[in-house]
Structure formats: C-alpha cells, structure tokens
Model the fold of this input.
Amino acid sequence: MDRRKFLKAGALGAAGTALAAPMVNAQSAKTITIVSTWPRDFPGLGTSAQRLAERIPIVSNGALRTEYFAAGERVGAFDVFDEVAAGNSQAYIAADYYWIGKHPGWAYFTSVPFGMTTPEWNAWIKFGGGQELWDKIAGEFGLKNIPCGATGAQAGGWFNKEINSPDDLQGLKMRIPGLGGTVMSKLGASTVSLPGSQIYENLVSGAVEATEWVGPYNDYFMKFYEAATYYYTGGMHEPGGGLAFGMNKSWWESLSEFEQAVIVACCNEEHAAQPEEASALNGQYLQRLITDHGVQVRQFNEDVWDAFGFAAEEVFEETRDHSALAAEINDAYQAKLKEIAGWRASAEIEFSNQRNRILGLV
Done:
C-alpha cells in the first residue's frame, strides 16, 4: 500500500464513529422524553441533567432528539420513576435511593451510609459486578439504569443548632433521604424525604430544622444559610452520590446498537463531568458561605460518628432481611467495598493524608 492510500485508510478508520452515524431527517429521528427530579437551571444537579439532555442529539447526529422536563414541569419530582416504568416517558434523571420505599436495594445504586466514594462506586458498577445487580433490580420494575452523574462526597448538612452528642439528634426534624435517613431515624430524628424544590421553604418555616443536600457549590444557591447557621462538612450518609439515567426497559431494548451506544457515551461523559465540576467549585463556595454569609463550619465528633456507625450496622441487617435480592446486593456491595477501599487506604488515602499534613492543607 502506498503512503497516500495508507493515510487515507487511517483517516477513515479514525472517523469510523462519525461514519457509523445514520443519515436522518427530522421525520425519522427518535424523541426521548426525559423527566428529572431536579429544578430547572439549578446549578450542579439541574444544569448537569440539562447538559446531558442537550448532548444526546449532538452525539447522535440528530438520530435522537430529547425533550427535557425539570421537576414539576411534566410530573412531580418523585413521580418520575412510575412515569418511566409505565412508558409514558422514556427516561428519568434522578438519585435511585429515592425509591427505597419500593425496594431498599435501590439505595446501593446512589449511596449508602459509610459506603463507597464516587471512584469506588464507579469501580464496582463498571468492573465489579455492580451494573449486573443494578440491571437485576431495575429489571423487576421494567427499567434499565446506567450512571449519568455523581456528586462526590457530600456534606453532613445544615443544622439550626450544634450537634455535640447523639442526644442532640433526638426529635430533630431533618430532611434526609435514603438509608442515611433510616440511620438518623434510629438515632431519634424525625426524617422526611423532600424534593430539592421544597427544602428551602420547609427549612425557613421550621417544618424541618436540618437538611442535607449536596455540597458547598450546590448548597450555596439553595440559600440554606438564611435559615441554618451550622454547616457540617463530612457526612456519613452519602460518600458518593451516584445518579441514574433510568430508562423504560422495553424502549431501551427497541433501540439500535448505535442509539444505545450514544446514550451510554453521553451518560459516561456527564458522569465524569459532574463530580469534576463539584470538586473544582466546592472549596470556592465554602469560602463564600463563610465570608459572605457568616456560616459556621463544624465537624461531627467521634461520639456522633460512632453512633452513626452502630445505627448503620442495624440498618444494613434490616435491609438484608427484606429479601433475597436485597441481601445479594448488600453482600456484594460490602465485599467489594472492603476490597477496593483497603487498597485505596494503603495508597491514595495514605498519600493524601501525608501530603495535606506536609503542605498544611488541613
């Protein structure tokens, strides 16, 4: 083969993905109706979901179109699961731990107390059998779910009083979903799971006295500092916060390989972008909360952490007792957590602790 033919062949190979995209017109394009649990244009969670919805038509070369509806625009935030399972919309963007009332196993595909960080969860989902278990539980509800975002480790939350001992949690009215909420309930808190759009008004009115949300970047725009002074940083409830692109399974299976590949690629892209964005901005917005709004940053002491740990052990046992599938998911998750986290503690965490000590970062 002469040099010109070789270079031409290489160029065609490199452009293979683009060449594989079908030629479409407006009439033949498939429309994906996406419903979300997040408010429109909300920095972080909302803008991430909108980025994903906007990206799919571009990558598909017009073969797939999207209609995006933020929380409350088509259905309520917590109605998106049933909307998609019924086939009325094709996909939702949400945190799957919202559905623990349907089955507690859903919690492991967002985050659980003392669980996996975002890199650890990614490893489990992609290379440790997590996606297969996600497919198993989702399939029981007529869904197919894949990762499409992550928050990274979340803050412990906003409180209108200091938490100096486990006794301070007795009777506390707190917005906190998932198994983290179950842990807080065991410690005497009165917990509720509210969609993001309803938290501020409930905090201001006193209907709730504390809330968790995400981290400084996302929380800043919620203006929780207007109703709660104390911001606890590290929390036990969501060390990772993986988000889901949940699709109607029958619809997913009707797609071509190309269409499925586009959706997976776009979800993977946003799944990487969202925690990177949060990591880049959390420090900046934490400082703004402190300097601009007088927020007082706190950390839970070891007595409180220990109480969280004992309660979490009870919650996991109760979750296992729910069903064979719940036990299978929990046991696989916990086993992989020990394996992944053990190595990370020996390498990355040891390094970061020593780096932070030497550089005076903490």
Q: What stands out?
A: Confidence is low (pLDDT under 50) at residues 1-19. Residues 126 and 262 are 17 Å apart (CA to CA). The radius of gyration is 22 Å.
